[in-house]
Amino acid sequence: xxxxxxxxxxxxxxxxxxxxxxxxxxxxxxxxxxxxxxxxxxxxxxxxxxxxxxxxxxxxxxxxxxxxxxxxxxxxxxxxxxxxxxxxxxxxxxxxxxxxxxxxxxxxxxxxxxxxxxxxxxxxxxxxxxxxxxxxxxxxxxxxxxxxxxxxxx
Length: 154
Known about the structure:
Low-confidence stretches: 1-8, 149-154
Strand content: 25-35%
Structural class: alpha+beta
Number of helices: 3
Mean pLDDT: 85
Largest sheet: 6 strands, antiparallel
Helix content: 25-40%
Shape: globular
Radius of gyration: 16 Å
Number of strands: 6
């Protein structure tokens, strides 16, 4: 892990595997880091699902090397998956028969639309490399949603 402290931000970055196992690695790293920060377990689950979707897309459509970056600024967590490719991610509506095509929609919904991509991003673990970052943001101080109840209130 590369940990960099900058002004008001804390950044942790990891190079990821160069194959389909990268998604499992990214899930484990994200879960461990957010749990250590004391993030609510439901928000950790959301972040783990979103990072899995972004990493899976990087492996399927991007190019190596892959990198996971977690950056906390004040009360926000920014998660980036960087790959060496240039293809822009496209959110689409998948048919019921398709196995793929829902990941970016899931990220959009769970992040409240706070997601996107940018090009020419410097890798944190490989200073001589630049790639495309696909990212999402979540508030660290957001409370988990209250459980839905049925019936009359007391």
